[in-house]
Amino acid sequence: MEYTVKKLGMLAGVSTRTLRYYDEIGLLKPARTNSSGYRIYGQVEVDKLQQILFYKELGLELDLIMDVLNDPCFDANQALREHRTKLLDKRDQLDLLIANVDKTIGVKEGRISMSDKEKFAGFKQELIEENERKYGNETREKYGDETINQSNAKLQNMTQEDYEKVTRLAEQVHETLAVALKVGDPSSDIAQKAADLHKQWLTYYWSEYSKEAHAGLAQMYVDDERFKAYYDKDQDGAAEFLRDAIHIYTGMKK
């Protein structure tokens, strides 16, 4: 079966403007253009749009989706199996959050009691799942499953007090880094303070700290566009500056 832009948009629940944009950037080209100038999409394009929407639901950026779908090694069946696994993980996460909300309602109504650990379990699990979706493949490849599993377990067992401390540390890293960038010297006292705060932040997640691993993570912040975008969102060059400061802090500067 074939579809015009309008019909495909209605079928998939996306706007015609979105489909035209996908065509413009080369993400989803129509099968052909008819004599009246209308874009016409066939079954191949319908299946590809399904893949695009799956990946968007999982939080991938359009340029990364394009790279994945254009990879000559791309296996649609394997991708669907991976989508299913991730959707099941997401369902488990939502079930945990729903249970957390139900318990909280019960506490408010005086029907049950709830420990502080239970109150934050759902939110910590959500953070773990988000990190796995975004960076799981890269971090597991670099550090191994055992290290990442230990890190996730450490986060899940955090007390409310520790969770608040590590959240504040993350804010301090960004605040201090912003000041250090104005100084412009990664070896300056303020830049080294940012590196030290980053180390303190890491120790809440890592079961064991090492200078080599810290320096390696800092390099990943530059090499991986998603990590880079996280630090560069406030100011261009922040990821590279933080890496340089951490490499000096750890003594790994080449």
How would you portray this structure in words?
This protein has 254 residues and is mainly α. The chain folds into 3 domains: 68 residues, Orthogonal Bundle (Multidrug-efflux Transporter Regulator, Chain: A, Domain 2), CATH 1.10.1660; 79 residues; 92 residues, Globin-like (Orthogonal Bundle), CATH 1.10.490.50. Helices cover 74% and strands 3% of the residues. A hairpin with a 5-residue loop joins strand 2 and strand 3. Helix 1 packs across helix 2, helix 6 runs antiparallel to helix 7 and helix 9 packs across helix 12. It is globular, with a radius of gyration of 23 Å.
Which overall shape is indicated by the principal axes computed on the Cα atoms? globular
| Gyration radius, in Å | 23 Å
State mean pLDDT (0 to 100 scale). Answer: 84
- The CATH architecture of the largest domain comes to Orthogonal Bundle
How many domains comprise the coordinates? Answer: 3
The strand count comes to 3
- The SSE string, one letter per element, is EHHEEHHHHHHHHHH
Distance between the termini: 59 Å
What ranges have pLDDT less than 50 throughout 5 or more consecutive residues?
none
- Largest beta sheet: what is the strand line-up? 1-3-2
The total count of helices amounts to 12
Helix content: over 70%
Q: Proportion of β residues?
A: under 5%
Query: What's the CATH class label of the largest domain?
Result: Mainly Alpha
CATH topology label of the largest domain: Globin-like
What would CATH call the homologous superfamily of the largest domain? Antibiotic binding domain of TipA-like multidrug resistance regulators
Major sheet size, sense and barrel closure: 3 strands, antiparallel
Helix/strand/pairing class, anyone?
mainly alpha
